[in-house]
Design brief:
Keywords: Signal, Transport. It comes from Litoreibacter arenae DSM 19593. InterPro entries: Bact_solute-bind_prot3 (IPR051455), Solute-binding_3/MltF_N (IPR001638). Belongs to the bacterial solute-binding protein 3 family. This protein has two domains: about 45-130 and about 225-280, D-Maltodextrin-Binding Protein, domain 2 (3-Layer(aba) Sandwich), CATH 3.40.190; about 130-225, D-Maltodextrin-Binding Protein, domain 2, CATH 3.40.190.10. It is built from twelve helices and twelve strands. The chain has helices at about 1-15, 20-40, 70-80, 95-100, 115-120, 155-160, 180-190, 200-210, 215, 240-255, 255-265, 275-280; strands at about 45-50, 50-55, 55-60, 65, 85-90, 105-110, 120-135, 145-150, 170-180, 195-200, 215-220, 225-235. The strands form two sheets. Strands 1, 5, 6, 7, 8, 9, 10, 11 and 12 form a nine-stranded mixed sheet that branches. The chain has a three-stranded antiparallel sheet with strand order 2-3-4. Helix 1 (about 1-15) runs antiparallel to helix 2.
Length: about 290
């Protein structure tokens, strides 16, 4: 900051010299660059991202972090003047532990904010909203018990435990834990699982990535639960960091970046009135 003040003083002195217009042009560019440097964070922002939750957070075909939530967090880091963030891979099992241990400051994935989770972590404004749904076979036998997969350590598992996922009077279910969404997809294609319970947009992406499933399976129209996503923060009690993240998200909602990311990563929701309304409501003025 001392250097910046001295450069500004020099600029005022030069303004009195009519032969220094070219120099002043270069001086203005230098001043802008120095100001940007003065506003930048010295430390990096470490971001935990799920490696197995497309379209929100995953490793793409070139083994690079990708997804709606990953790109959203990259924009948050940019707005807050952090350097390009360090991206720390996590799984559904260790994501909150990694956050608690300080391996990262933000968790960017398919993370539902709940009252219970807020006891241990800070959460941002709602970044996305979806529901839990069931993928099941188009044709079944009345006497058949269907093997239905799910992920542990998720709100989906909570929905199963509370009896929200049932086959009603027409289907009988037996639930089986799997390691990841990718493992579930392979098991369904191989006939080891009859169906899968997960957030609707994850199921939609799974079927889009595995076209053969469209011939044999469908997704329930009725949602089983409300799933509001948010960015989780390790810094419990750090109101300034949470405020900064919310300030960045509000800007991304106001300028249309968040909606553009939805169109890029989740085209099935590109004309979704619920998401558009959510982003409008959270476009908090400066």
């Amino acid at each position: 900051m001392v250097l910046l003040r001295r450069v500004l003083w020099l600029g005022r002195k030069l303004q009195g010299d009519p032969g220094m217009h070219n120099v002043l042009g270069k001086f203005a560019a230098l001043t802008t660059a120095l100001f940007a440097m003065s506003q930048a964070h010295a430390e990096e922002l470490a971001i935990c991202f799920r490696v197995d939750a497309p379209p929100f957070s995953y490793l793409n075909e070139t083994n690079e972090p990708a997804g709606y939530s990953v790109d959203l967090c990259r924009h948050v880091a940019r707005i807050l003047n952090y350097p390009p963030p360090e991206l720390v891979p996590v799984t559904v099992e260790n994501r909150f532990e990694a956050l608690k241990e300080g391996q990262c400051s933000l968790l960017c994935g398919a993370t539902t904010v709940t009252i219970k989770r807020r006891e241990d972590f800070n959460f941002s404004l709602i970044s996305f909203v979806t529901d839990t749904a069931l993928m099941f076979p188009k044709t079944t036998s009345d006497a058949e018990t269907l093997q239905i997969g799910y992920l542990d350590n998720t709100t989906t598992k909570d929905n199963i435990d509370t009896g929200r996922v049932t086959g009603g009077e027409t289907m009988a279910f037996e639930f089986k834990s799997v390691e990841s969404h990718q493992v579930a997809a392979k098991a369904i294609l191989g006939g080891e699982l009859a169906g899968y319970v997960a957030d609707r947009d994850i199921l939609t992406t799974m079927m889009a990535n595995n076209p053969a499933m469209n011939d044999t399976h469908r997704i329930s129209r009725v949602g089983l639960s409300y799933e509001p996503y948010a960015l989780a923060m390790a810094r419990k009690g750090d109101d300034q960091f949470r405020f900064d993240v919310d300030r960045a998200l509000a800007e991304l909602f106001r300028n249309g970046t968040a909606l553009a990311l939805v169109k890029e990563h989740i085209p099935s929701r590109s004309q979704d009135e619920i998401l558009e309304t959510l982003f409008d409501i959270q476009s908090i003025p400066k």
